[in-house]
Amino acid sequence: MSNPHRYTYQLTPRAAPPPLPPSPIALISSNIYSPTVPAFLGSGLIHPFIRDQKNDFANDNGLNVIKSCVSEILGTFAADDSGVMQGELAWRPSFGSRIYLLKHKKGPLLIEASRHYATDALARWEPRVTNLRVTSAFFPSQLALYIDLIYDVISKNVPGNQVIFQGVAQRVGVPMQAAA
């Protein structure tokens, strides 16, 4: 016969500790963005670098920063695969594009190679740009290559991301002559 006065005790798991309060840095950085501009898009200097009357150099946030980053990537000389060209930035020689290698090319080779180099550079260095469509045209009278881009801007760099800006059009001009 069993004892009616026998009790069973069951241990309950410990309650999770309360979450830590946000750091002061997170509070400050989240307040600088307007409600319409996601924090992922960032803020910073605008290319080409120009001085303004408010700050030392002009800066902005959101889509203007992404457009500035795109033109900066395409305008920076990256190191080539052979190691002959070292790259424009000593601390990151592979940053940028190889469009400058097309300086003495012409015809269909120039157009196709410039599309390839632009697509490759932006896929590598700008994670916020997706669905990139590139066309390019060379204007001999101006000695310039114009690269027309149409792309979408995503909110996060994760699978299943959300498109913030769709069909952003941008033209980047690349001089095709040696600097004097």
Provide a compact summary of the structure.
By secondary structure, this protein is α+β, with helices and mostly antiparallel strands. It has helices spanning about 25-30, 65-75, 110-125, and strands at about 45, 60, 130-140, 145-155, 165-175.
What does this structure look like?
This protein has 180 residues and is of the alpha+beta class. It has one domain (38-175): Nuclear Transport Factor 2, Chain: A (Roll). It is 22% helix and 23% strand. It has helices at residues 24-31, 63-75, 108-125, and strands at residues 43-45, 59-61, 129-139, 144-154, 163-175. A 3-stranded antiparallel β-sheet has the order 3-4-5, with helices on one face. A two-stranded antiparallel ribbon has the order 1-2. The model is unreliable at 21-35 (pLDDT under 50).
Low-confidence stretches: 21-35
Describe the main β-sheet briefly: 3 strands, antiparallel
Structural class determined from secondary elements: alpha+beta
Shape label: globular
Radius of gyration: 26 Å
Number of strands: 5
Please give the order of strands in the largest beta sheet.
Answer: 3-4-5
User: Which fold name is given in CATH as the topology?
Assistant: Nuclear Transport Factor 2, Chain: A
List the SSEs and their pairings.
Layout: H1 24-31, E1 43-45, E2 59-61, H2 63-75, H3 108-125, E3 129-139, E4 144-154, E5 163-175
Antiparallel strand pairs: 1-2, 3-4, 4-5
